[in-house]
Amino acid sequence: MTAHRVAHVVACAAPPVHDLATFVDVLAAADWSACVILTETAAEWVDVDAIAEHTGRPVRIRRRMPGETDPFPPPDALVAAPLTFNTLNQWAAGVSNTLALGNLNRAIGLNIPVVAVPVVSPNLRVHPAYPSSIRTLTTAGVVMLDPDELKVRREGGHSSLDWKRVVGNLPDVAVGETVTS
Predict the structure, then answer these.
(1) Is residue 117 assigned to a domain?
(2) What is the CATH classification number for the domain harbouring 22?
(3) Is position 93 within any domain?
(4) Is residue 29 classed as helix, strand or coil in its secondary structure?
(5) 179: closest CA among 112, 79, 116?
(6) I want to staple 137 with a disulfide (CB 3.0 to 4.6 A). Which of 6, 15, 58, 142 is the partner?
(7) What is the domain count for the chain?
(8) Using one digit for the tens of pLDDT, what is the confidence trace for 102-142?
């Protein structure tokens, strides 16, 4: 079996989460193996069992119990997409009260490359917390992509993201290579 680079995918409850299986396929085509972490609300929006079957790994939603081993290999990169207003602002503030936020914060601390795609409505983008959070995270090294440049319409009219362009922003690292800045 060929070794793949590992991408931990943190997905929030925004319309593109309905297209998560497509994202997993695009990652696989680019030699990335996906480990999916969902916010609790996102887990209500998707078929968690179908995503687990699609990735060949469990989907994580809640933290592990003490002594329980992590079912995911260490990541070569992390993708936060779609990223909601709430999760974005909590992440920038350093809040780690969920598995998703804990992984986002830990990735910065471990210097793991992070690509994020906030999917935030225009009326929330004018809130003062939004630009401040974007600045905080980009200063910490997060590659923040503009969802307006990536937005696509899928069959049935739901909005999604151009997943190939998202993957195109992942670092070109070899399996297990440590990325330093």
Answers:
(1) yes
(2) 3.40.50.1950
(3) yes
(4) helix
(5) 112
(6) 142
(7) 1
(8) 999 999 999 999 999 999 998 999 999 999 999 999 999 99
Token reading at 59: 């989907």
How many whole angstroms separate alpha carbon 147 and alpha carbon 130? 14
Range of the domain at 46: 5-65+72-166
DSSP lists the bridge partners of residue 143 as 115
Two structure tokens written together for 47: 């078929």
Amino acid at 92: A
CA-based max dimension of the chain:
49
- For 141, counting Cβ atoms within 10 Å of its Cβ (0-12 exposed, 13-18 middle, 19+ buried), the class is middle
On whether residue 178 sits in a domain, the answer given is no
Q: Is residue 113 part of a domain?
A: yes
Which tokens in the block code for residue 86?
A: 């709430």
Q: Tokens 């993708």 label which residue?
A: 79
Q: Which residues of the chain have pLDDT under 50?
A: 1-3, 175-181
Give yes or no for a contact between 45 and 13, defined as CB atoms under 8 angstroms apart. Answer: yes
**Of all residues in the chain, what percent are helix, strand and coil, respectively (each to 5)?**
40, 20, 40
How many other C-beta atoms lie within 10 A of the C-beta of residue 44?
11
Q: What is the DSSP string of 90-159?
A: HHHTT---SHHHHHHHHHHHTT--EEEEE---HHHHTSTHHHHHHHHHHHTT-EE--HHHHEEEPGGG-E
